[in-house]
């Protein structure tokens, strides 16, 4: 297994963990909202979910840009990756 494969797997695992953490946070927001939770608590929880998703998205895009650019046969052009990255903003 190449070193790049190991890095990709590590980055993939880290991004997946961020997404799962965000899913847990979103479930908490939904539960709090359904149960008539305090509006400021719901907003703070929602903000945390948004931040977690943004961090996961940026992590995934950074990894994709790095790994796609060094691939023998890239699946995406630099322009496609740039457009995808900008869509996170």
TrEMBL record:
Keyword annotations from UniProtKB, A to Z: Copper, DNA-binding
Highest taxon above the source species: Bacteria
InterPro entries per record: Metal_Tscrpt_repr, Metal_Tscrpt_repr_sf
GO MF, one example: DNA binding
Keyword DNA-binding applies: yes
PANTHER family tied to this protein: TRANSCRIPTIONAL REPRESSOR FRMR (PTHR33677:SF5), TRANSCRIPTIONAL REPRESSOR FRMR-RELATED (PTHR33677)
Similarity comment: family membership: Belongs to the CsoR family.
Record protein name field: DNA-binding FrmR family transcriptional regulator
Organism: Trueperella bonasi
């Amino acid at each position: 297994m190449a070193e790049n494969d190991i890095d990709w797997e590590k980055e993939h695992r880290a991004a997946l963990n961020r997404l799962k953490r965000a899913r847990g946070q979103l479930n908490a927001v939904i539960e709090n909202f359904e149960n008539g939770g305090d509006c400021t608590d719901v907003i703070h929880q929602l903000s945390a979910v948004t931040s977690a998703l943004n961090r996961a998205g940026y992590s995934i895009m950074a990894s994709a840009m790095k790994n796609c650019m060094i691939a023998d046969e890239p699946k995406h052009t630099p322009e496609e990756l740039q457009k995808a990255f900008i869509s996170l903003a």
